[in-house]
Amino acid sequence: MRQDPDRPQVVATGGKENSLKVWDLQTLSQEPIFKAKNVRNDWLNLRVPIWDQDIQFLPGSQKIVTCTGHHQVRVYDPASPQRRPVLEATYGEYPLMAMTLTPGGTSVVVGNTHGQLAEIDLRQGRLVCCLKGLAGSVRGLQCHPTQPILASCGLDRVLRVHRLREPRGLEHKVYLKSRLNCLLLSGRDNWEDEPREPAPVPSEEAENDELWDSLEPVVVGVKRRQKPLEAQPGGKKKQQQLGGPSPLSPSL
User: What is the pLDDT of residue 252?
Assistant: First the structure.
């Protein structure tokens, strides 16, 4: 499922034996506003299976581009009466797992299960170039919105950054230890504008101190210890008056 960046209320869905559908979340209708129709049968008159792996909205238009598990790239136009793809191109022999739009929006970069990356022109449906360096299935692709930079990740556990303009090639790569499924690029052009030192995070001890300082002090009454009877003034007289033994009396 993908969301249209120009119309946030519009989303597109697709999958295995689930054709492309476009939904408007603000309408009360349970039917999609556009439902793609499968392509015609192949040269053996056999039905072509449906397996949409990724979807992207073309900027400035209502067109939608998809990549399939049968190494196909298709462009649909919901504004036209034709529900079948208006353009179709194929790349390689392996399933296409991820796709992203280039900054100009005139081409897409696709990646398959064998680590192959390719840029395909959507105006003519031809292959522009191939990018090397991956060793596993591609699971995440994203181009920078303003710079000719492509970030990719996959099951080989390496994050790579390619350059899409001359000189094309691999710029950076980082091993991240785990199998990667997706990634996200920031739209910031200059990272030097960000503060280098992060804001201090209050520790648990400081939070506990603030909590205790906010409590109102409570005075608890202390019970005074009563002095023994002999230590009290007149204690001996009281003891003699009560019939107790006197320290001056001879012992019997």
Answer: 42
The segments of the chain whose pLDDT lies below 70 read: 187-207, 219-252
pLDDT at 189: 64
Neighbours of 158 (CB within 10 A): 18
Sheet holding 64-68, edge to edge: 52-57, 64-68, 72-76, 87-90
CATH code assigned at 35: 2.40.10
Number of structural domains (the chain) is 1
| Strand ranges inside 86-168, DSSP E | 87-90, 96-101, 107-112, 117-121, 127-131, 138-143, 149-154, 158-163
Digit-coded pLDDT (tens) for 143-153: 988 888 999 99
> What domain range includes position 77?
1-90
Evaluate whether residue 151 is within a structural domain. no
